[in-house]
Inverse folding.
């Protein structure tokens, strides 16, 4: 045998011995590598790592380690006794993942199984976290547990996770227990309890999962992670919730889908801790489906009861967008304005106490303006009926609008609705970034039957027709005359236009600074005879009405051309004209202090033998109006009657009270027509 052959044989024997040694070492679990592995893990993690109890290591095929107890220390500055203390640990990995971690990527492990696990997760204000193993400097992460090792599979016999993170504003204690596997298929499942605080939202939840609880899966690096059944129920803040579906991740950007039931005292109380701008409302109950994927939450609400409102919708919350964004559609059979009262400053249970002094009518509650800058929104709204919360006003039907919130500016665009046979169109805008907040409204109303809309104008006991055709027939009968046709004190087809602005942090402040034109016109209408005579104090005519019954008078025209300046509304032209009289209105309504200073002058068109006509005044406030007469003019008539009675007898005494009447030329409702000297004494 030559030297070369002996060399080859020697090398072969050495290789075989080496392979045999490796096989034996792999079979025995490399027990002599405990200390080297422990030292290498300590250097890589930059914190002490202890491997205690039984030890087995497998480096080939599927790399894995089994150890009786694994303890990862936590740096002293984090104030935690350890990062992880686990017993009965089985850990597997891929060498490629370890290499990438060594190069600076996030650590990913194939599987972690532990009979018992105690984890203490801590992050400091500077962004450093005790779970950022091997990090040379703080790495603030966008995700709540950014930097934490990710697992393809996590199996915990019994575990506790104590998580404190001031950056994510989290202080939660999570307790886990469960089992799974082929031998335990019949009893597989996990349970978890969450107690503590997420942002300002106190949590007390119970979770049940049908398999490995996917708490630490990363949906980006493990997009094919299996979906497992999940049920969550308990309380989140003031809300009660129940979720029954499936999930592939619950932290960071979750992946989940399922049925949701949510109830609570107010939508705002639920949305505020989560950074979602929602209105303050009465108690609500919501049922639908909730899903999350690619950073987008989607709520398909089959039923949303808010107070007496009945709504539904399909909404998407874009969590990754900056600022966060809400989009979708909101629809429903009925929306009661009272249910949004606190949100629009209309008082309600949550409103601030009214200030001392005269009773105020305009809502004083201040808007939550900062919340309008917390996110953006673009939601299309379709509501069957918008109820104003009073029997005196008919609800709007078929309300359509588009709610857009961008950079603190809230707009209601393409606003359309129907009421009493007519239409309402326009837009409104509230700019919360202005100081003070600015508001604008452009609204137009056409073809609205005023008696059908303002039901408070109807006579007591008269039913309100719902169909536009019935309203039109009633109005035509009233114009033909006869007491039987009088169902409302005022009828007609109303047209209105306004383009106004205001500023402030409440409805009262905005109206108290109102500026812009307001034009109201009424056609094809009627007015109660007794109301006309009362405005002029025509005693004989009024007595005739009492004896013969009230009758509707066809309105020739009615117009209120108003101008608001710094909260003071004054008429440029305000007139009601019928065949009996022409009523001119002058004065002002001060919305800043809600005071009234109006004067009604009635000019008769017919002859009356016993008239006490004198201007009627309306003073006081919106909450406590005071109606009176101008005593000077009436006193003059009375004095003249006394003088004539003394000189010529009782018959002559009535001469000052005889009203001759006068017919006017032209249309008094047009600015070009000669206006009555309403302010002339």
């Amino acid at each position: 045998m030559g030297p070369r052959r002996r060399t080859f044989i020697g090398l072969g024997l050495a290789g075989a011995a080496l392979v045999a040694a490796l096989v034996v070492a792999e079979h025995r679990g490399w027990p002599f590598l405990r200390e080297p592995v422990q030292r290498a893990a300590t250097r890589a993690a930059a914190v002490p790592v202890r491997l205690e109890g039984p030890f087995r290591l497998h480096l080939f095929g599927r790399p894995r380690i089994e150890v009786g107890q694994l303890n990862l220390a936590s740096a002293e500055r984090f104030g935690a006794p350890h990062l992880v203390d686990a017993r009965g640990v089985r850990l597997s990995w891929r060498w490629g993942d370890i290499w990438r971690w060594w190069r600076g990527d996030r650590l990913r492990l194939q599987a972690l199984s532990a009979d018992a696990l105690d984890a203490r997760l801590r992050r400091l204000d500077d962004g450093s976290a005790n779970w950022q193993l091997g990090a040379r400097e703080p790495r603030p992460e966008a995700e709540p547990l950014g930097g934490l090792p990710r697992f393809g599979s996590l199996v915990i016999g019994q575990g506790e996770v104590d998580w404190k993170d001031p950056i994510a504003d989290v202080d939660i204690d999570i307790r886990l227990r469960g089992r799974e596997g082929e031998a335990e298929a019949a009893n597989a499942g996990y349970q978890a309890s969450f107690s503590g605080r997420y942002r300002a939202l106190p949590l007390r939840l119970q979770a049940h999962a049908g398999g490995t609880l996917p708490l630490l899966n990363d949906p980006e690096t493990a997009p094919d992670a299996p979906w497992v059944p999940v049920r969550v129920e308990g309380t989140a803040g003031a809300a009660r919730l129940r979720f029954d579906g499936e999930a592939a991740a619950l932290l960071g950007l979750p992946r989940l889908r399922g049925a949701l039931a949510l109830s609570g005292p107010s939508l705002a109380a639920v949305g505020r801790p989560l950074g979602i701008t929602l209105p303050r409302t009465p108690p609500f109950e919501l049922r639908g489906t909730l899903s999350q994927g690619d950073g987008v939450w989607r709520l398909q609400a089959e039923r949303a009861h808010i107070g007496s409102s009945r709504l539904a919708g399909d909404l998407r919350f874009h969590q990754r967008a900056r600022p966060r964004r809400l989009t979708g559609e909101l629809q429903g059979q009925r929306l009661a304005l009272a249910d949004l009262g606190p949100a629009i400053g209309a008082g309600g249970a949550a409103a601030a106490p009214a200030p001392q002094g005269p009773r105020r009518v305009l809502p004083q509650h201040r808007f939550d303006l900062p919340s309008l800058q917390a996110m953006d929104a673009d939601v299309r709204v379709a509501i069957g009926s918008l109820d104003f919360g009073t029997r005196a006003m008919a609800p709007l039907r078929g309300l359509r609008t588009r709610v857009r919130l961008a950079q603190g500016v809230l707009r209601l665009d393409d606003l359309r609705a129907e009421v009493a046979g007519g239409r309402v169109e326009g837009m409104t805008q509230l700019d919360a970034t202005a100081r003070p907040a600015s508001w604008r409204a452009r609204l137009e109303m056409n073809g609205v039957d005023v008696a059908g809309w303002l039901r408070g104008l109807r006579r007591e006991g008269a039913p309100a027709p719902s169909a536009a055709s019935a309203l039109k027939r009633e109005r035509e009968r009233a114009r033909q005359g006869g007491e039987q046709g009088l169902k409302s004190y005022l009828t007609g087809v109303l047209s209105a236009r306004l383009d106004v602005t205001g500023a402030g942090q409440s409805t009262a402040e905005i109206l108290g600074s109102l500026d812009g034109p307001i034009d109201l016109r009424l056609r094809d209408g009627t007015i109660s005879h007794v109301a006309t005579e009362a405005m002029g104090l025509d005693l004989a005519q009024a007595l005739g009405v009492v004896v013969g019954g009230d009758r509707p008078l066809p309105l020739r025209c009615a117009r209120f051309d108003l101008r608001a300046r710094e909260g003071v509304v004054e008429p440029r032209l305000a007139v009601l004209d019928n065949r009996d009289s022409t009523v001119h209105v002058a004065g002002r309504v001060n919305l800043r202090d809600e005071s009234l200073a109006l004067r009604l002058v009635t000019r008769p068109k017919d002859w009356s033998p016993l008239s006490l006509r004198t201007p009627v005044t309306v003073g006081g406030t919106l909450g406590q109006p005071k109606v009176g007469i101008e005593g000077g003019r009436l006193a003059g008539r009375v004095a003249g009657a006394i003088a004539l009675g003394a000189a010529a007898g009782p018959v002559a005494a009535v001469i000052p009270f005889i009203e001759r009447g006068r017919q006017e030329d032209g249309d008094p409702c047009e600015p070009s027509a000669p206006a009555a000297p309403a302010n002339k004494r």
